[in-house]
Specification:
The complex is a heterodimer of chains A (216) and B (222).
Chain A: H1 7-42, H2 47-62, H3 65-78, H4 85-111, H5 114-122, H6 127-142, H7 144-157, H8 169-180, H9 183-215
Helix pairs in contact in A: 1-2, 1-4, 1-8, 2-4, 3-4, 4-6, 4-7, 5-6, 7-9, 8-9
Chain B: H1 7-12, H2 14-46, H3 51-65, H4 69-82, H5 89-114, H6 118-126, H7 131-161, H8 173-184, H9 187-216
Helix pairs in contact in B: 2-5, 2-7, 2-8, 3-5, 4-5, 5-7, 6-7, 7-9, 8-9
The chains are: A mainly alpha (216), B mainly alpha (222).
Amino acid sequence: MNIAFGLKEFLFLLTGLKWTIFLSLIAFTGGGAAGLLVAVARTAQNAALRRAMMLYIAVFQGTPLLMQLFVVYYGLGLIGIQLPAWAAVAIAFTLNASAFLGDIWRGAIEALPRGQTEAAIALGLPMLSRLRDIILPQALRIAQPATVGYAVQLIKGTSLAAIVGFIELARAGQIVSSQTFAPILIFGIVGAIYFALCWPLSLYSARLEAKFAAAR
Amino acid sequence: MGPDLDFAVVMDHLPEMLMGCLGTMALALSGMSLALIIGVAGVMARGSSLPWLRRLVIAFIEITRNTPFLVQIFFLYFALPAAGLRLNPTVTSILALGLNGGAYAIEIIRGGVQSIHKGQIEAGLALGLHKAQVFRLIVLKPALRAIYPSLTGQFIMLTLTSSICTSVAAYELTSVAQRIESDTFRSFEVYFTVTLMYLAISWLLMTAFAAFSRQYFSYPTR
């Protein structure tokens, strides 16, 4: 049953790629929104809230992404939530992204001069406006290089969905590889596709960093 | 009625899991050592006068950092035998971890070496220190201290990455967990317990790295 690598196989890889991009986008958007909350809570006045977020971040940064995937995947089933595989996997990636992005943005918020917050308080701005109009726009700008850099980690991370059997790019590669018996060629192509996705982002992140370094 | 949980079954397999932890530590430490060697060699090759060698190192760094570890380990797993190298899964994993960690280590170590000003070396020589003393005290130690936090952070990430080596059936904690899961069908309990073990391993490493830093890098900076 030795199938040659042809157009049909290549299109199958592209279907996998579609899911990789889809998963990455969901995790980045969802993780970004939740990460904003994590960053704000992590730098809040309330010490208990700060400590809780510290623990949240430490757990996600101190355990393998693969384990987080397994725990969420089977944990959801256990509490009676039946979701399609892609949704369960997307939730796990979103939680992971919220911790990492939250920590990146926490650093950026702490890098802002204290006077910014103090001036906003002195002007009588309510907390929401302080965050929305003063703190977050500046913090997210400083954090741009690291945020784009994390997007690369996220795209690469979605490949782990392959291990729970979800057919994204890496899993599609495994399937085509076992059909064609040409693993070196197939994983070479799959690697090249990931590279084409990630390298421009890495270059962009490095360019942003150089721009900020020059401005300082 | 709450969710149906049974950790007792998992506890029966505790000794196997603890052995798996040792497997993960061994895999990670071997990977780190290899990454350090590749890192130092890579920095030297990166600064070589041969343009093709410099370009090769840059290509290696960019390809490794912009592709998933899972794809890298699959590629190695199949490419090595094709190149006539028949290695067992654990050795293949060490190689994959070393290459992956090495790509990051090159950039980190290069940053540390560049952080030492030329004037420091000249000052050391002018004070009558031997070349070896200058290298050890003025170049190596401050450079190591400067990169220590990023390098050890990278090493902890490498330890967590080692869980992916289960996909080529290397002996480590995740592959042990997957075997216990297929025996007991207690997926959540097994993976939850193992996740806590990974957390303990990263905290252990972090503490050990910090203790080492206090011992060797605690002299006044200014």
